[in-house]
Amino acid sequence: MGKINRAAADAVREAIDGARPRVTQRAVSDEARITASTWRRRMTGATAFRVDEFVTVARLLGKNPGELLDRIARESA
Predict the structure, then answer these.
(1) How many CA atoms lie within 13 A of 54 on its CB side?
(2) Three-state DSSP class for residue 68
(3) Which residue among 28, 48, 65, 67 is least crowded, i.e. fewest CB within 10 A of its CB?
(4) What is the C-alpha separation between 34 and 36, in angstroms, rounded?
């Protein structure tokens, strides 16, 4: 599961980095109502994003959750 968690964190990080206008991880986590400590665990791959969190984050970033999941599947294979 660690490999998948890390791939999810990488996908989210890349989506945040590519967001226009520029957004911060803090802004995304606040908008998604994910606490700072939980966000850190998610972004280090220590724990998995819950499905609802992942979908919310993807939509906040203007990304299709399915496309991000496809990327995660490829990277964790």
Answers:
(1) 20
(2) helix
(3) 67
(4) 7
Would you state the pLDDT for residue 77?
83
The whole-angstrom separation of Cα 8 and Cα 37 is: 17
Residues 6 or more apart whose CB falls under 8 angstroms from that of 46 comprise 5
pTM of the model: 0.87
Average pLDDT per consecutive 10 residues, the chain (77 residues; last block may be shorter): 91 92 93 96 95 95 93 90
Q: Return d(Cα 2, Cα 32) in angstroms, integer.
A: 23
- Closest residue by Cα to residue 40 from 1, 68, 49: 49
Report which of 69, 65, 25 is spatially closest to residue 44, judged by C-alpha positions: 25
DSSP 3-state percent helix, strand, coil across the chain (nearest 5): 70, 0, 30
